[in-house]
TrEMBL record:
<protein>
    <submittedName>
        <fullName>Uncharacterized protein</fullName>
    </submittedName>
</protein>
Amino acid sequence: NSDLVCLQSHIYFRAIVEQLTGPPANKLQSYELTEEQWLLAGAVEEVLLLFQNLTDLFSQAEVPLIVEALPMLEVLEVALEGAREDADAPNVVCVAAQAALLLLDKYSVFTNECELYQIAIGKL
């Protein structure tokens, strides 16, 4: 979640960031974001928010039960599919959502092959 928190802070403090990076006297103009980059930052933030609940769950000292984790992964999958198909989203966000879906599918294969997982979540 550190990337999300950093990005959210950058967006929240946009006016201040622009005041720091804009003036030539500060010699920070190479770090100044364009309007397109600010829009991209907002789109990336939306996709990173999809991972927040799962990251929080898996960051706890207690290990989550499979019956808690799998439904959340299914919700994440649907949300990532929506992000991938969003015609208004920047292409890089759609590609990143597809990459995340491929990784999610890679690990979902293991749960589909194990009857114990299927029984635990009530699919068998």
